[in-house]
Design brief:
- The protein has 399 residues and is α/β, with parallel strands linked by helices.
- It has one domain: Metallo-beta-lactamase, Chain A (4-Layer Sandwich).
- 23% of the residues lie in helices and 19% in strands.
- It has 9 helices and 17 strands.
- It has an 8-stranded mixed beta sheet, covered by helices on one side. The chain has a 7-stranded mixed beta sheet with strand order 9-10-11-12-13-14-15, covered by helices on one side.
- β3 and β4 form a beta hairpin.
- α8 crosses α9.
- The chain starts with 11 loop residues before the first helix and ends in a 28-residue tail after the last strand.
- The structure holds zinc ion (2 copies).
- One zinc ion (ZN) binds next to loops.
- One zinc ion binds next to loops.
């Protein structure tokens, strides 16, 4: 019997209890049955949940314990010295008034705000202080979110990649459903739509979509397509892989974007490039990859992130999933350094795969993500690129 390690790392004082619960989940999962086993089903569906498309080497429970032992002895706990300071004056006014340009804001960890086709779309919003079910224990964020929920423009849609606490944060989903003007549409992997309906009553009025791999939902002019990636899901000791995971392709006639969520390297990546590429821009995870002997099935490293950019055929990429919650052994400021080495090794120009400062917003100038100029005026065409406002591009969530 194999086991995937928990993504949520509780404090040391809770570690023993956590181990016990993980061990218990082994036996429960082994006993899961599928009441629908008479029905034909996709290969990635299995009794009581889901599996990856391609061979997935599960680290065993012993591997997990060995990693934790090594971490206690060897992990560098010094403060990261090269983390950028968060932006002190995020582009709140620009974000509120921009209905025409594509822009991307790095909020922190995997949370990004994408503006495209008049929609404000949040990916994996986590605004809580800890990536944990507990307010007093679990991975604590190193710096506050680059934007507060009060500084967000009205959010039309939220996409969630999977159930791990550093990607799906119930207080954040609750706050978004209570935003003035009504809740966003919630785009979830299959079965996480059920989680929303059960766990977040504040979202009762929201449109909630639960998508399988390669399925899509339309909002305004944007197609939201859930793509397979190699990963796993778990929020409790009893729900391992019972909800689906994936990346998100957001595609319109004007712009093509891909959000990776968490992923190990697999054939899914070139599959995405073949079926949905090319992309203008991708947000690709670059952090939480050490030690490789343990993390590689579930988290790509910066070298693999560059390969991912190339294989999904993304012209530009932004590194996410770094600098905020320390979930693996590399220092928080290490991923951009290793990304620079990976770019050099693969001959990728620096501006083709960048990292952004926490809270930074960049706009798409037609071919690249560029910093906002102090005079950014979203109501006029750009004199350099000729981007024109899209008439009638403000799309309500009722569409
Ligand atoms: Zn994860
Ligand atoms: Zn993660």
């Amino acid at each position: 019997m194999h086991c995937r390690p928990p993504h949520l790392f509780l404090s040391k004082t809770l570690a023993s209890l956590h181990m016990l619960l993980i061990a218990l989940s082994f036996s429960l999962f082994a006993c899961a049955t599928n009441p629908d086993n008479e029905q034909p089903r996709p290969d990635h569906h299995k009794d009581g949940g889901f599996r990856n498309n391609y061979s997935f080497i599960d680290p065993s429970l012993l591997d997990f314990l060995e990693w934790r032992r090594q971490r206690l002895v060897h992990m560098d706990r010094s403060e990261p010295e090269d983390l950028p300071d968060p932006v002190t004056d995020p582009a709140v006014d620009y974000l509120a008034s921009n209905h025409s340009e594509v822009s991307l804001t790095f909020i922190g960890h995997a949370s990004v705000l994408l503006q495209m086709n008049g929609l404000n779309i949040l990916a994996d919003p986590v605004f809580s202080d800890r990536a944990s079910p507990l307010g007093f224990a679990g991975p604590k964020r190193h710096q506050p979110p680059g934007l507060t929920t009060q500084q967000l423009p009205h959010i039309h849609a939220v996409v969630v990649s999977h159930s791990h606490y550093d990607h799906l944060d119930r207080p954040s989903i609750r706050q978004l459903c209570e935003q003035p003007g009504g809740p966003p549409v919630l785009m979830m992997p299959l079965k996480l739509d059920d989680w929303v309906r059960q766990a977040v009553p504040e979202c009762d009025e929201a449109r909630v979509e639960g998508l399988d791999w390669w399925q899509e939902a339309l909002l305004g002019e944007v197609r939201f397509i859930l793509t397979p990636v190699q990963h796993w899901s778990q929020r409790t000791p009893f729900d391992r892989n019972q909800t689906l995971w994936g990346g998100w392709a957001l595609v319109s006639d004007d712009f093509r974007f891909w959000f990776s969520g968490d992923l190990g390297y697999s054939q899914d990546i070139p599959d995405i490039g073949e079926r949905l590429g090319p992309f203008d821009l991708a947000a690709i995870a670059i952090g939480d990859y050490q030690p490789r002997w343990f993390m590689s099935p579930q988290h790509i490293d910066p070298h693999e992130a560059v390969i991912t950019q190339q294989e999904i055929r993304a012209d530009r990429a932004v590194g996410i999933h770094w600098g905020t919650f320390r979930l693996a052994d590399e220092p928080l400021d290490q991923p951009p350094k290793d990304l620079a080495k990976a770019r050099e090794k693969h001959g990728v120009p620096d501006h083709h795969f960048i990292t952004m400062v926490f809270g930074e917003t960049r706009r798409w100038d037609g071919s690249d993500l560029v910093p906002l100029s102090p005079s950014s005026d979203t109501e006029k065409s750009d004199p350099v690129t000729g981007i024109q406002p899209i008439s009638g591009s403000v799309i309500t969530v009722d569409d």
